[in-house]
Amino acid sequence: MMNADMDAVDAENQVELEEKTRLINQVLELQHTLEDLSARVDAVKEENLKLKSENQVLGQYIENLMSASSVFQTTDTKGKRK
Predict the structure, then answer these.
(1) pLDDT, tens digit, 9 for 90 and up, residues 14-32
(2) What are the residue ranges of helices labelled H in the chain?
(3) pTM of the entire structure?
(4) Cβ distance 66 to 72 under 8 Å?
(5) How many Å apart are CA 15 and CA 28, to the nearest integer?
(6) How many angstroms separate the CA atoms of 62 and 75, rounded?
(7) Tell me, what DSSP letter sits at residue 73?
């Protein structure tokens, strides 16, 4: 009977060990996923800053073109009429 009890304890220990191993592997996989997502977020933030900067440059360029063009100048009808 002692042998049967020992076998049952060994089987329980084996199941626990397998469960712990599975959980450890799952945690490691989730850590890698988190690292990948974190790196992706950093890359997207960097790209976003770059695009914002480019948009500011383009916006200023467009403003300069508009201010240099007579088509976009405001007309003062009171001053031109006598």
Answers:
(1) 999 999 999 999 999 999 9
(2) 2-68, 77-80
(3) 0.59
(4) yes
(5) 20
(6) 20
(7) S
